[in-house]
Amino acid sequence: MTDRLSIALAQINPTVGAITTNIDRIRDARAEAAARGADLMVCPELAVTGYPPEDLVLKPFFLDVVEQAVRELAAETADGGPALLVGAPWRDGDKRHNAALLLDGGRIAATRFKVDLPNYGVFDEKRVFTPGPLPGPINVRGVRLGVPICEDMWSADVIETLAESGAEILVVPNGSPFELGKHDQRVQLAVGRVTESSLPLLYVNQVGGQDELVFDGASFALGADCRLVAQAPAFTEHLLITRWERGEDDVWSCADTECVAPPEGLESIYAALVLALRDYVTKNRFPGVILGLSGGIDSALAAAIAVDALGAERVHGVMMPSPHTAQDSLDDAAESAELLGCKLDTVPIVPAMEAFERMLLPAFAGRDPDATEENIQARSRGVTLMALSNKFGPMVLSTGNKSEMSVGYATLYGDMCGGYAVLKDVYKTTVYALARWRNAHQTEGAFGPAGRVVPERVLVKAPTAELKPDQTDQDTLPPYDALDDILRCLVEKDLGVAEIVARGHAPEVVDRVWRMLHLAEYKRRQAPPGPKITPRLFNRERRYPITNGFGSIA
User: Fold this and answer.
1) Nearest of 31, 39, 144 to residue 82 by alpha carbon
2) Which residues form the active site (predicted)?
3) Which residues 6+ apart lie within 8 Å of 5 measured at CB?
4) Which residues have CB under 8 Å from 430's CB, separation 6+?
5) What are phi and psi of 543, to 5 degrees?
6) Which of 23, 356, 366, 378 has its Cα between 20 and 30 A from that of 258?
């Protein structure tokens, strides 16, 4: 019977579908784990394919490649080095499972299948996987390990079964995406499972961006007394070594190791946005990004995130003035680019506006100017950015925020165009808070400069689309602090009018915001993807019909 076991938690950043690259990452981490004396290395959920693989797992030839890669990796464990616990989609007869596979001694020594398949929020695993049976422990170097997979930890049944069948340590592979406050929720949930089972628990989480999701890592371990004994840093790849020893009471304890507190609040949001954008651009092989720098808060913050994610040399700003663009806006855009060190070009859209005016004059005869002409300006800017993107290769970075996307205060095929909307899930009030935070701090691993990166005037002037003279956002929208509170009630909490009015909002304002939210659904369906940071991301988690006759929330 073994009395000591060293377990490495491999917090890696896989790319969905890049099986060879992911296997190489696992192989490199195993070499480091071996050098540091590990007996077992644990990888995140579905680390071989990346998480979530979605409908890739419906393709038999994809699963063929997965199986071949896993078997080749298993053969390498005949070298006497650490055993591997890797996640992969796996076939059992005609069923597809979300599996944890123990590779040891040159073979696949054990398989365990995920029992509780999540089918809510961003998850839809029941579409592609079959749930497994309640599992028993697996034997690793003489120690019985219970292996609940991600969601299996969120309810008591799987861990209760493992404890009753003799598990000594719980090892949980995860693909748990970030949202604000999620890390504390995970730890508290793990504490509950440890309390119920009296078993220590190791939690290894994926890190990295994958389309709308960003995984924060922040892997950790709890002793049987619920004490946090190990904590990996968040938002970066890391190999966390934990060394366990069996006590006289047969309870395993962990020797002191590293504990790095994860970021919280605005710092965690900013780090998530930086990582999400970096991985979206890099994994999709764009040379960089191009964005409209308008002199406003949204584009200034988006540019700062882009420079922190990619470096100034991969960020190209474009100021596209119209006759309504104030000198302050020109100056603020220039200052943003100067503070960040990124390229800024100026491409006036006046010739495009005049061309459209001449072209449409006969069709518009007898009609007064209205929002149509305003939208032509926004679409001229969109065409300009897309032309530069097509010619030189960088991805267009959309700069719209969640407040605007909620109520349709954005132009379809104009400022909504782009490959990625980094602020898509960030309310306007949070945009301001993040900009102020970034001016005073710098996230670890950022490529941008320290110190102020958003001009001070941008933080204090009234936000405006500058599509007509003396325009401000508040001509059309309620003040952003009120608007964002109403939107959080409608989008994240599904509250009705009476409940929202009780928070101090006028009934007519709540009803108007609801109607704008409802009418903008068709726009949001055509918006670019963007990273999730709140409990409910548009399109991926909040799915409402476009054609919708329900007109009251009372």
Assistant:
1) 39
2) 45, 114, 150
3) 39, 40, 140, 141, 143, 169, 243, 244, 252
4) 266, 269, 484
5) -120, 100
6) 23
Amino acid 249: pLDDT: 87
- DSSP-based three-state secondary structure for 537: coil
Reply yes or no on whether the pLDDT at 406 is more than 60.
yes
Strand segments (E) across 256-328: 289-292, 315-319
Chain center to CA of 303 = 18
Q: List residues forming the annotated binding site for L-glutamine.
A: 120, 176, 182
Separation between Cα atoms, residue 49 and residue 234, nearest integer Å: 21
- In one-letter notation, the amino acid at residue 308 is D
CA atoms within 13 A on the CB side of 433: 13
Q: Give long-range contacts, CB 8 A cutoff, 24+ apart: 444-447.
A: 444/235, 444/236, 444/271, 445/235, 445/236, 445/274, 446/274, 446/308, 446/309, 447/307, 447/308, 447/309, 447/310, 447/311, 447/312
- Model's pTM, two decimal places? 0.95
Q: Distance between CA 266 and CA 464 in Å, rounded?
A: 24
pLDDT band at 539 (very low <50, low <70, confident <90, very high): confident
CA 347 – CA 349 distance, rounded (Å): 6
Instruction: From 47, 56, 45, select the one nearest 22 (Cα to Cα).
Output: 47
Virtual CA dihedral for 460, 462, 466, 467, nearest 10 degrees? 160
Beta strand 201-205 pairing with 220-222: antiparallel
pLDDT value for 2: 80
What is the mean pLDDT of the segment spanning 64-77?
A: 98
What 3-state class would DSSP assign to 228?
strand
Distance separating alpha carbons of residues 31 and 39, to the nearest angstrom:
12
How buried is residue 36: exposed, middle or buried, by Cβ count under 10 Å (0-12/13-18/19+)? middle
- Dig out the tokens for 376 from the structure: 């032509």
- Mean pLDDT along residues 233-252: 95
Q: Which residues are annotated as a binding site for deamido-NAD(+)?
A: 375, 404, 523
| Catalytic residue set | 45, 114, 150
- Summarize the annotated binding site as residue ranges: 120, 176, 182, 292-299, 375, 399, 404, 523
Please give the order of strands across the beta sheet that includes 83-92. Answer: 107-113, 95-104, 83-92, 40-42, 4-11, 238-246, 252-254
DSSP 8-state class, residue 449: P
What does DSSP assign to residue 415?
T
pLDDT band at 475 (very low <50, low <70, confident <90, very high): low
Query: Position of tokens 């890391």?
Result: 238
Which tens digit of pLDDT belongs to each residue from 278-305?
999 999 999 999 999 999 999 999 999 9
Average pLDDT, the chain: 94
| Whole-number pLDDT of residue 1 | 62
